[in-house]
Structures are given as structure tokens and as C-alpha cells.
Design brief:
It contains twelve helices and twelve strands. The protein has 332 residues and is of the alpha/beta class. Strands 6-7-8-3-9-10-12-11 form an eight-stranded mixed sheet, sandwiched between helices. A four-stranded antiparallel sheet has the order 2-1-4-5. Strand 11 and strand 12 form a beta hairpin. Helix 4 runs parallel beside helix 7 and helix 7 runs parallel beside helix 8. The longest helix has 18 residues.
């Protein structure tokens, strides 16, 4: 077996909580807690969960935009934590982040052509103006935009879908091997979002780039991902191939999430079992002991508040879940 392109082991990020003029420490927020996963070459891994589950913090830690507290990130056999300035610069060319808000990610004073050309010049990938214009045209064509039509426009003159395409084109200009996509279609309507997802699928087939797809939209993740990891309160609750996870989820949290996904058949929709989650979502400031999900779980027993379940195998084909009473349930 070949080494995965990206391997994350026990990644942890703790933010100190301070108050007052003297910034006295008042506890800590555990945003990411011992997260481990791997990303294969040309694969799409979906990282899903509720808002505040730590998905975006994982993304920022991968690129060292936020320094992790503990854990390791290994890219193509190299420990990212040991990288100096030049190695980190090279790594960030190989692993690009597509932010959730394309309008906020684009300088409003620069044209589309200037925005796409900026990273090419910054990394010394083009030397002459003619080469820059040719490469910008190639990248815009790759995302179904035209340099002659869109190159001279400013971000405010573009639709949401066009802005997202510009962000993707700019990231692809550095020829990365991994794209971290943080909610890439959350601000778009359904039809435009579907076009962006189709574009990403085509680019993956053409370029062989791997995606870490961060989202709370399970239907979208089911459409494009090869594997899915489900996060809750900073930790991974379940990970499996996408078909296995949606056909037979084992963790109660995954089952509850999937039971809320609407289906197009009205007869099936009316007959489905809903799994409501009890209580309020805890915060990273106070994570429940042992199983962090037991305060909201419909299967919880006394032992769940006393013993922390490992993320262990529950089925074939590397299907793992962090639950003492994991069992399959059909909810879709």
C-alpha cells in the first residue's frame, strides 16, 4: 500500500480564554481534539458536522494558518510541523485553501485578471506579461470563464458563482495537489452550487487533485465525496466510505443527522423515522466527560458518562465509529 498524500494524527487545537484588562486566563476552548484522518491522492474526503464542530479550525491547522497545539500533519512523507519558512511556502503551493466567502477572499480593488495573476507572480511561476496573460486565460477557461469578458471586471461585478470560480482558478494556478474547500457552495443557490460541484468533479478527473471538502450539507457531500468523516465538538465520531455511511450509519449522532436530511419522495418522507437530539449543544469550553455526545444521545447509558469510546472498527472496508453501542441503522 502506498503512503497517503496527507496524514493527520491526533491533531489538537486549544485556545486560551482570557478576560479583563490584564488578559488573565479564564480556562480554555478545545476546538479540535485528537483528530486523525488521511487523504489519498485524487480522493475527496468530506468533513461534516454542525457549526462550531471544529471543521474550519482543522483546515486552518493543516495549512498552519493557525498553529496546532499538539498532533502531526504529514504531507507526502514530510512532517509539516518541522517546516521552516521556505518549506512552508512550498507546502502552501501544494495545499491550497478555498475560503467559504469568495467575496471576502477577493481584493475589491483588483480585477479578475489581476487576482488570478497575483499568486503566479508571488511564487515566481511567470516572468513576462505575455506569459502571465496566457496563463490567466488558461485558468479562467478551466473554470468556464473568459479572459476577454471577465478578466477586466471587479469582484462586485460578478455573481456569487462567478466569484467562487475565480477563487478556484486562483488556487489552481499554483498547481496544488490538495484543495481544502471550506463550504464552497454555502452562499450559492442550488443551481449555481450544482454547477460549481460539477466543475470541481471535472477538475479532479482532469488534474488528479485531492479535495478535503468541509461542509454541513450532507446531501452535497454524498454527491461528491469518496469518504466521509463526521465531527462533533472537535472530535471525529464516525468515518467510512460515503455509500457505507449513508446506507448504514453506526454512530447515533450520524444517524440523527441523516434522519433530518430531506428526501424527494413525499411518501417516503412522511414514513421516515426522525431522531431528535436532546438538550443544548455543549461548547468547547466544557466538553462532557467520557463520550462527549452522551448528554444528547438517545442510546446513552450510565457507562457512556464514565468510559470514553475509541474510534474503532464497526464494519468492513474501514468503517469506524466512536460509540460503545454502535450498530447500523437505516435512516434514508
Amino acid at each position: 500500500m502506498t503512503e497517503p498524500l496527507l496524514r493527520v494524527a491526533r491533531l489538537t487545537k486549544v485556545f486560551p480564554l482570557t478576560t479583563g484588562v490584564l488578559r488573565r486566563r479564564r480556562g480554555e476552548v478545545r476546538a479540535v481534539d485528537r483528530v486523525s484522518f488521511q487523504l489519498e491522492r485524487g480522493e475527496t474526503l468530506g468533513l461534516v458536522g454542525e457549526s462550531g464542530s471544529g471543521k474550519s479550525t482543522v483546515a486552518r491547522c493543516l495549512l498552519r494558518l493557525t498553529e496546532p497545539t499538539r498532533g502531526s500533519v504529514v504531507f507526502d512523507g514530510e512532517d509539516v510541523g518541522s517546516f521552516g519558512r521556505e518549506d512552508l511556502r512550498r507546502y502552501r503551493r501544494e495545499v491550497q485553501l478555498v475560503f467559504q466567502d469568495p467575496f471576502g477572499a477577493l481584493n475589491p480593488r483588483m480585477t479578475v485578471a489581476e487576482l488570478v495573476a497575483e499568486p503566479l507572480r508571488a511564487h515566481g511561476l511567470v516572468e513576462h506579461r505575455r506569459d502571465t496573460r496566457r496563463r490567466v486565460g488558461e485558468l479562467l477557461e478551466m473554470v468556464a470563464l473568459e479572459e476577454s469578458t471577465h478578466g477586466g471586471r471587479y469582484p462586485r461585478e460578478l455573481s456569487g458563482g462567478q466569484r467562487q470560480r475565480v477563487v478556484i482558478a486562483r488556487a489552481l494556478g499554483l498547481r496544488p495537489r490538495v484543495l481544502v474547500l471550506d463550504e464552497p457552495v454555502s452562499g450559492l443557490d442550488v443551481s449555481v452550487g450544482a454547477q460549481v460541484l460539477d466543475l470541481l468533479a471535472d477538475l479532479q478527473s482532469e488534474l488528479g487533485v485531492a479535495y478535503l471538502l468541509i461542509s454541513h450539507d450532507l446531501s452535497m457531500v454524498r454527491q461528491v465525496a469518496h469518504r466521509v468523516a463526521v465531527m462533533y465538538l472537535g472530535a471525529i465520531m464516525e468515518v467510512a466510505e460515503v455509500d457505507d455511511l449513508f446506507r448504514a450509519p453506526h454512530h447515533p449522532y450520524t444517524q440523527a443527522l441523516l434522519s433530518a436530511v430531506p428526501v424527494p419522495d413525499p411518501v417516503q418522507e412522511r414514513s421516515r423515522r426522525r431522531i431528535p437530539l436532546m438538550g443544548e449543544v455543549p461548547t468547547g469550553l466544557y466538553i462532557p466527560p467520557a463520550c462527549r455526545f452522551h448528554t444528547r444521545c438517545f442510546k446513552a447509558r450510565q457507562v457512556c458518562s464514565e468510559e470514553e469510546p475509541p474510534l474503532g472498527p464497526v464494519a468492513e472496508r474501514d468503517h469506524r465509529a466512536s460509540c460503545l453501542f454502535a450498530e447500523p441503522m437505516q435512516v434514508l
